Amino acid sequence: MERNSRTFATSRPALLGVAVVFTLATSVAAAEVGHGPSRPASEVPSYAPSYAPSSAANVGRAGRGRTRTQPLGTTADVVADGRSARIGALFTADRADDLAGGHSCTASVVHSPQRDLVVTAAHCVSDTSTDLVFVPGYRDGHAPYGVWKLDHRYLPDGWTKDQDQDSDLAFATVDETDGKAIEDVVGANLFTPGTATGATAVTVVGYPNSRETPITCTNKPTSYSSTQQRIECPAFSQGTSGSPWINDAGQVVGVLGGYDQGGDTDDVSYSVTLGSEAADLYKSAISDQ
Questions:
Q1: Nearest 5°: phi and psi at 280?
Q2: This prediction's pTM
């Protein structure tokens, strides 16, 4: 199942209710992982503590020291604050002044020397004839941190030549807004290839097309093949392609996509294993700046 719409939305569909069906996707009990009882979405803390944009030392410290309150494998609303601002939705540029109901994929800011880089799935940005904008922290038609135009896109040869599902990863630079780089406004996580699948639990954050607010789920990924990893998290439907998988050290260790462009069910999502191809692509993206 494609986790983005091949045809970008051009109309405003009626919004679904904000409630998400919260179900356990694993048999791990909350007590086994040191979690408290599940809380209402309004009380579930964001996956990341505050980020101080002026301090380079804070780059990538998204999850250090946080206390989880969601059981593993459950999906909840993301708290709207500066801590979740590094993740946003992608829109076609013609929706920049009319955002509601028009997002198609998810992307997130990752650290780079020029502080202007986002990561997403290759199938979200491979149509270079379509101009796109990134809206970090998007919620209910509003752009609290501005609208950022995608500039240069970096896709692996495996995707551009063959649409190889093992190469479903991409980077893009975003233009400055009001003379500022995006990382100086919302911060960034660290893109970290080479991390062993399942070494720790990861948090996935994304924007389903049917909602105008993001959802989040934490679980431990497992290997699907030597080139793919999977995670059990309910309700990650179309629009969540490109969602970052972030560990407690604030490192992006997966990006929703890969197998069947994200998976064939909303409750199990996939990512390419971030190996040498991902490392080379990131190097190309930052070397070209």
A1: -65, -40
A2: 0.80
